[in-house]
Each structure stands twice: as structure tokens, then as C-alpha cells.
Amino acid sequence: MSARTNAHQNGAQAGGVNTSHTETDAPAARMTVPSDASAGIGLYVRRQASSPLRYLLEQSVLVACGWVPTVVGIGLRSVAYRLILHMQGVAAIENGVRIRYADHVHLGRSAYIDQGVYLHACPQGIWVGDNSFVMFGSVLHTYNFRDLPHAFIKIGRNSLIGEYNVLRGQGGITIGDRVYTAPGVQLLAVNHQFDDLTRPMVEQGITAQGIVVEDDVWIGANVVVTDGVRIGKGAVVAAGAVVTQDVPAHTVVGGVPAKVLRAVGQNDKRNPNIPVHL
User: Fold this and answer.
1) In this structure, are strands 173-175 and 211-213 parallel, antiparallel, or unpaired?
2) In sequence order, which residues have a C-beta less than 8 Å from that of residue 221 and are 6 or more positions away?
3) What CA–CA distance (Å, rounded) separates 241 from 256?
4) What b/e sequence results for 210-225 when a residue is b if at least 16 CB atoms lie within 10 Å of its CB, and e otherwise?
5) How many other β-carbons are positioned within 10 Å of the β-carbon of residue 267?
6) Cα separations (Å) of 83 from 6, 29, 62, 99, 230?
7) Which member of 47, 123, 169, 231 has the lowest number of beta carbons within 10 Å of its beta carbon?
8) How many CB atoms lie within 10 A of CB 109?
């Protein structure tokens, strides 16, 4: 099953409608800031929250509570942030977390959001499962200028998104249970068209097919996963790889572009003298 098909199925659970999309209008025009100040302010607010009233509510709560450090701040936010986002049980949110479209953010029980994380959650939301961590400086971003209806990020249970990861979910990103990503990983569920020599790249539109990472996957440091890729269950992606094709389950891949190096468990070269800590 392709990443496109599976992302559609998972996206439906997260409120998505279709995870394969090609947009060919002129995004440059949509990105232009209005010359009129009032129109510019209105555009800014629409890119931050579901409505002006939601913007005022969310910003008020974030300003009042978002800066408070230590466990005191975590406790305060575990209560106050229920006014602006969806939280099951108790989730821990550190100070200095930036949240936009907070009403589209869903945090599971014992989820942890570290300092410096940026969550921009429209239109179909960001979902962080029970006992999953999003670590320092990571960006989870689904907002887009083209109003793509299937943009979402869904993270399963007991997973860890490492430091300074970038997840661009315009095409939908589905991450399973017990998935670990090392620092600097990028999952980019969007891609620009550029082969029409008669038009600038920014006027040729994008594709947004979606990315699926199945359960029990380990993704090494500084890996880039491009749009339309599915990484199978139990796979390992070596550090520095650029993944442009589907990864079979229980394989180790690496390189630029990434290729299968071996099956997990094949030619096991672990040094028995190196201790393993559980």
C-alpha cells in the first residue's frame, strides 16, 4: 500500500479528507502581503488562529502562562491550556512553546512538549499520542497558503521526535507507535514543481502526497524523508540518508538517495563486549 493511500486512511481518522493533492495556481500571489495595513493585520490573524476571537483567547493564555518556568509552569499550563487546546489526562508543556491554531492541537496522556517547539496546526490538526515526546526546537507545521484540506500531523503512542526535527505536514504525516527520530530529521510532505521552463518555480504549484512512518521505526540523525514515502514497520534509516522511495519493513537503508543495505537481523555484527542498556 502506498504512502498516499495509507495516509488517506489515517487522515480520515484525524479529520482529513484526501492526502494526495497537486496545486497549480500562483502561490506567489497568495503569499504577497497586502499594502493596506488593516488588510495585512487581518491576514496575519487568519494565519494564526481560527477566528479573531480565538486569536485573542489563545494569545492571552499563551502570554499569561507560556513563559512560566520549572515544574510550576508545567502544572499551570496543564490546567490553563485546556482552554485553548485538546488534552487527554495530563500533558507536560515546557515554557517557550509557540502554538498557533491551538484548537487543532490534540495531546494525549503524558505527552511531553519541550522548550522551543513550534506547533502550527491548521487545518486538520496536530495529534501527539500518549507518552510521546516532541523535543527541543522541533517544528511541526501544517499551515499552507493554498488551503490544502488534508494537512495534518499524527504521532502515535510512545514515540519520540528528536531535537530540531522539522515536520511539514501539508500532505499529511502519519507516524506510528514506538517511532524514534534522532536530532535534525526532516519529514517533508510537500514538494515544489519546477520543470516548466516558461514559468517561475513559485508559480508551478506543489505536490502533497503525504508521508507514512509505520510502528517501531528508528530514523537516524539528519535524515530527510521526501513527499510520498512510506517507511515500513521495524525499518532503520541510517544517519544522513535522503529517502525518496518506500522503505520495506524490517530493512536498514542508507545513502543519498537511500537504498536497502541489509535486512534487520541479517549479518548481525554487534560486538558482544559492548554492554546493552535497557
Assistant:
1) parallel
2) 162, 182, 183, 184, 185, 239, 240
3) 6
4) bbbbbbbbbbbbebbb
5) 8
6) 33, 35, 11, 13, 36
7) 47
8) 14
Write down the residue that cell numbers 510512545 correspond to.
158
Residue 120: strand pairing partners: 100, 141
Class of residue 37 by CB neighbours under 10 A (exposed 0-12, middle 13-18, buried 19+): exposed
In the numeric block, which cell numbers belong to residue 6?
A: 495509507
| CA–CA separation, 47 and 101 (whole Å) | 8
Residue 35 class from Cβ within 10 Å (0-12 exposed, 13-18 middle, 19+ buried)? exposed
Q: Could you tell me the CA-to-CA distances from 86 to 20, 26, 83, 127, 199 in Å, in that order? A: 27, 35, 8, 9, 43
* Alpha-carbon 95 to chain mean position: 20
**pLDDT tens sequence across 145-173:** 777 888 999 999 999 999 999 999 999 99
Question: In 3-state terms, what secondary structure has residue 39?
Answer: helix
Distance between CA 53 and CA 121 in Å, rounded? 17
Residue 195 and residue 176: Cα distance in Å, rounded?
Answer: 34
- Contact indicator for 111, 131 with CB cutoff of 8 Å: yes
Q: Is the pLDDT of residue 28 over 60?
A: no
Instruction: Tell if the pTM clears 0.70, that is, is over it.
Output: yes
Alpha helices in 89-222 (DSSP H): none
